[in-house]
Amino acid sequence: MKKKIIIGLILLVGGVLLIMPLFKSDPDVESGELAVFEFDQENLAMHVGDKIDLKLRIEQPIVKLELILDNSVVETWESPSGTVVYRLIGEQNLMGGHRLTLRATDSNGNTNNDYLMLRILSDIVPDKMIAKIEGSYPHLTSSYTQGLEFHQGRLFEGTGDPGRLGMTTVAEVDLTTGKWKEGKFMGLGPTRFGEGITILNDKLYQLTWQSQVCYVYNVDSLHGNIQEFNYIGEGWGLCNDGESLIMSNGSERIVFRDPASFTTTRTIDVYDNTGPIANLNELEYIDGLIYANVYQTSLLMVIDPKTGKVLKSIDASDLFSETDGRGEVLNGIAYDSETGKTYMTGKYWSKMFEVKFLDK
């Protein structure tokens, strides 16, 4: 039986309690259900390309039955009886989570809804890979790394501020020493917790965690922001594909934004063959694919930006074992297109590593 959510307790004469099950019937139906999903769970999972015959059982005489996916009616039956079947197909563009609603209407105009949560998973099993260390460089242990980016051979880093001490910065970094280049840094006040950065059209974009503001700087000066954008929700990671800004918010969702207005142009949900990949953090765009740190793990996910499917899963745990052990989690990946080299580090780490990704 599906769980029933009690939405009201009304004390009647003699102490009788009236319980109204919201998700099984609407209040205009006197008793019983008109139609239900013939499925003994509240959740249904399937992969892209799968086909499932969804059985819908008519409990009482009705004049209309509708199957609704999220907010769109996908099928309607007139005066059905017994059991009807709908062929549910795991379509690529529907990968992610949805709600199915079965809405029945009787001859008096009364309606009754039944619900089923649907999750469509990727049909790809990700390749397993490892991050192999090719070299190491110093990294400031005072840097709580949130974003890492190369631009025309120059390395930039954005940091956060866990202690709320005004330590959020964005700076150009000397790769060989790990230090900020003189005059090439900018800080924010203690009310602003910096997150991911990216550089597009000579502008450096810096997210904030919960302030819902993206700051924009001239990449050559970093002296005061030249523009600000507001957004709803949290900011975590940021990269770009040369046209759009690509942003994570700590969930499985990745948002593509117009760099001129910061408005959302499209979204993808990131899934592998077992489910959604949440806690997506720092991002990097390499050779047409999105590389994403998974927060509080040593994993990188390689994501198809068109579909959200995880193509590869990279284990970078060897990097942490080569630090001095004082740092926090892995975070920070930057690709230098001029050399073809990739670099990774973590929050408060003492080292930054040049890495290659190899089959496990």
Verbal overview:
With 360 residues, this protein is mainly beta. It folds into two domains: 24-121, Immunoglobulins (Immunoglobulin-like); 127-359, TolB, C-terminal domain (Neuraminidase, 6 Propeller), CATH 2.120.10.30. 1% of the residues lie in helices and 54% in strands. It contains one helix and 30 strands. An eight-stranded mixed beta sheet has the order 24-25-26-27-11-30-29-28. A hairpin with a 4-residue loop joins β21 (245-248) and β22. Mean pLDDT is 90; it is low at 1-31.
- Strand order across the largest sheet: 24-25-26-27-11-30-29-28
Work out the helicity level.
under 10%
Structural class determined from secondary elements: mainly beta
User: How many helical stretches?
Assistant: 1
Low-confidence stretches: 1-31
Largest sheet: 8 strands, mixed
Radius of gyration: 26 Å
CATH superfamily of the largest domain: TolB, C-terminal domain
Whole-number mean pLDDT: 90
- By CATH, the topology of the largest domain is Neuraminidase
What can be said about this structure in brief?
With 360 residues, the protein is mainly β.
Keywords:
elongated, 1% helix, Neuraminidase, disordered N terminus, 5-stranded mixed sheet, 8-stranded mixed sheet, mainly beta, 360 residues, 30 strands, Immunoglobulin-like
